[in-house]
Amino acid sequence: MKNVNFSNWLHVLLAVGLTTVVLTVQAQAVDVAAAEDLIKVNKCGKCHSVDKQKDGPSFKKTAAKYKGKSDGEAKLYVHLTTGPTIEIDGVKEEHTKVKAKDDAAIKNLARYVLSR
């Protein structure tokens, strides 16, 4: 029976683990410039800001609401794409649907909001 060099196996496992972490972080990285452009084009700043309450909640407040929840990004994505009924100063209205070239841009926007 061959001697197994556990040190070599440990190095291999460590390398695979670190590679997985790096790829996961890259996949979830936020393209800030693209998100801010989408916010500008869709006029989200009319009702929302990063840290101040306007007619809609700040991005910080939204991020705090979903902090630690594994489905936070998915729930925010649905909110951004379906136009749910919202209430502003006692008046109900449909939230504007975010318009983007593709779903990836909207998911990036959701990650941006959640990262604030």
Description:
This protein is mainly alpha-helical. It has a single domain, classed as Orthogonal Bundle (Cytochrome Bc1 Complex, Chain D, domain 2). It has helices spanning 6-27, 32-41, 59-66, 72-82, 103-114; strands at 85-88, 91-94. A two-stranded antiparallel ribbon has the order 1-2. A hairpin with a 2-residue loop joins strand 1 and strand 2 (91-94). Residues 21-27 have low confidence and may be disordered. It holds the Pfam family Cytochrom_C. This is Cytochrome c domain-containing protein. Residues 1-29 form the signal peptide.
Record keyword descriptors for this entry:
single chain, 116 residues, mainly alpha, Cytochrome Bc1 Complex, Chain D, domain 2, two-stranded antiparallel sheet, 5 helices, 2 strands, elongated, metal-binding, Cytochrome c domain-containing protein, Cyt_c-like_dom, Cyt_c-like_dom_sf, Cyt_c_ID
